User: What shape does this take?
Amino acid sequence: MPKVGTNSAEEPVISLEGVSLSYNGGANVLKNVSLSLYKKSFHFLTGVSGAGKTSFLRLLYMGLKPSSGTVKLFGQDVSTISREEVYKFRQRIGIVFQDFNLLSHLTVLQNVALPLKVAGESALKREHQAKEILDWVGLGNCFNALPDTLSGGQKQRVAIARAVITRPDILLADEPTGNVDDKIADKLMKLFYGMHNMGTCVIVATHYRQFIDTFHYDRISIDRGHVIKKDRK
Assistant: This one.
């Protein structure tokens, strides 16, 4: 089994063994994928549009079930865990999908602080940390705004801030820099790098060649359903 970010002394945070995925019995989007990903590792997930990058990320978030094979998170086969355990696992995973999934009736600050509220943190700590991360992503003047008043790029930054505020063990980001300018995109990449340095396993799906060439991280490429691992040089 190929290993990415390997450390033989530790267990992978993500492990796929012979995983295939198809929709409604059609052709496989993913074919016999086997790989292991470890904490404090950073991976670009690449492939042409429609290659299966989003499907791959949703598998890791337990939003999809494989047609065959085994998905393990934190050493446990996710097909054997209860609904309550799925919820607990997801608290350890930060996720940024392209549809943002912001709650329209909550302010920007409340959206970002929500994971901390769920985790039982105090109102004072939630507000302090949410303001800090929003300042970092350039939205310090939007604390009280509602999501529907924001641009696509602003919504994307809110979703990213919400995903990283708990310092998750795994961070999954689907085209996280797609709606922002180069300056903000570079800042977001530095944020992801900081998460990686603190121990998070980071997976960023992107088609942005400049980032792939500038930041020499490991690559996981999807080509006609096959997953190809390419270590950084």
In short: DSSP finds seven helices and eleven strands in the chain. The first helix runs from residue 53 to 60.
